[in-house]
Design brief:
By secondary structure, the protein is of the alpha/beta class. 32% of the residues lie in helices and 24% in strands. The strands form 4 sheets. Strands 1, 2, 3, 4, 7, 8, 9, 10, 11 and 12 form a 10-stranded mixed sheet that branches. Strands 5-6 form a two-stranded antiparallel ribbon. A hairpin with an 8-residue loop joins strand 5 and strand 6. The radius of gyration is 19 Å and the shape is globular. The model has no long low-confidence stretch (mean pLDDT 91). The chain binds iron/sulfur cluster (2 copies). The site of one iron/sulfur cluster has 14 residues, from helix 13.
Length: 355
């Protein structure tokens, strides 16, 4: 059987100016041949993450991207829901990201852990045969997945597939991190979640991305693009190429292709060839000898006491309960599963791997 080649649109967008963003998104949707529904229930899933300010442009999906999508949807009288969960306090996370304000203007904000929770069973899943999702995921006629172009210290890249991990309500995410334990199993788990959600529209906020120690402690990278595709996997394949990765090196993409949920080929619209933006990569484990890899695994997570405010969030969110405050965080290396959730949630960027 011939493999289906999906369209991926790429459009330049230099900054988060409202008019620029709306123009770029409209153009990307049209190039990717994505039709805007009429009078439907549409759920927009941004990447809200945690207590991060919208002005820290490289961490959360920028509110001007969400606002532009809302304006386009409103023209066709769609009912809009904007939803996500958070490792931290979701109310504060939504407020700080600027997305709460957009939701108030155009529709309804849904904090996933506060929605009715439904059980999902999937006998074809590789890791998650049973899990929970908020009811809105199944109620919505259309899901628009709106990730952010960033590196990730565990999975190397966090994009369209990984953004759907945020559909797992609140604290259940910690439990799943613990269950997965390593990047390979975690990537399989991400594809299990993806195959039960399958958003039909995917729009990447690649205006300002993040390189290095993503998804929250890296450096902002002005990439200057918005990408769109009907297919989540195709969008991720294009985005990682744009960042300078080989797509098969990203375990979730590799797993999705193995399950025939997507393929490496895509039909690029808006440009003849994708540029390579050479994002600075986080530490790449598999290139190292066993000896150096062992050293990496023993590399301690260190606390910058000048930055740490002793809030205890890292300890609260650690799925392995490996952190205790004394009064600064102390990490029990024997318990730690190296999921890096502590670094992800720290509002001060006070945790990092020892150089
Ligand atoms: S390291 Fe970060 S999350 Fe942990 S106590 Fe300090 S400021 Fe809070
Ligand atoms: S200490 Fe950090 S990296 Fe280790 S298990 Fe806890 S949250 Fe994960």
């Amino acid at each position: 059987m011939k493999k289906r080649v999906e369209k991926v649109a790429i459009v330049k967008c230099k900054n988060y100016n409202e008019i620029e963003v709306e123009k770029a998104i409209s153009k990307a949707l049209s190039l990717a041949e994505i039709e805007i529904p009429k009078r439907k229930k549409v759920l927009i899933k941004p990447n809200v993450v945690g207590f991060f300010d919208k002005n820290q442009e490289a961490i959360t999906t920028h509110p001007s991207i969400i606002e532009a999508i809302c304006k386009i949807l409103k023209k066709n009288k769609n009912e809009i829901f904007i939803g996500d969960s958070s490792f931290t306090n979701p109310e504060i996370a939504f407020k700080k990201s600027g997305i709460e304000e957009v939701a108030k203007k155009y529709g309804k904000l849904i904090i996933f852990e506060q929605d009715k929770i439904i059980k999902v069973k999937d006998k074809d899943a590789k890791v998650l045969k049973r899990f929970h999702l908020p009811k809105i995921i199944k109620q919505a006629d259309l899901i628009i997945n709106v990730p952010k172009l960033k590196t990730h210290q565990l999975t190397k890249y966090t994009g369209a597939i990984k953004n759907l991990y945020g559909c797992i309500p609140g604290g259940m995410k910690q439990k799943l991190h613990m269950e997965a334990g390593n990047a390979k199993k975690f990537s399989k788990l991400l594809v299990d979640i993806y195959q039960n959600i399958r958003p039909k529209v995917n729009i990447m906020d690649g205006v300002v991305g993040m390189e290095g120690k993503g998804p929250t402690s890296g450096k902002p990278k002005k990439a200057g693009y918005i990408l769109a595709s009907k297919n989540t996997i195709s969008l991720d394949v294009a985005c990682v190429k744009l960042m300078g990765y080989k797509p098969k090196k990203i375990l979730a993409i590799k797993e999705a292709i193995k399950r025939k949920l997507g393929n490496l080929k895509f039909d690029l619209k808006g440009m003849k060839k994708l540029p390579n933006l050479h994002f600075e990569k986080p530490f790449v484990q598999e290139k190292l000898s066993k000896k150096i890899l062992k050293m990496f695994k023993q590399k301690p997570i260190i606390v910058d006491k000048k930055k740490c405010i002793k809030c205890g969030l890292c300890a609260k969110k650690c799925p392995a309960q490996a952190i205790r405050l004394n009064p600064y965080p102390e990490i029990d290396k024997k318990k730690c599963i190296r999921c890096f959730c502590c670094m992800e949630v720290c509002p001060q960027h006070a945790l990092s791997l020892k150089e």
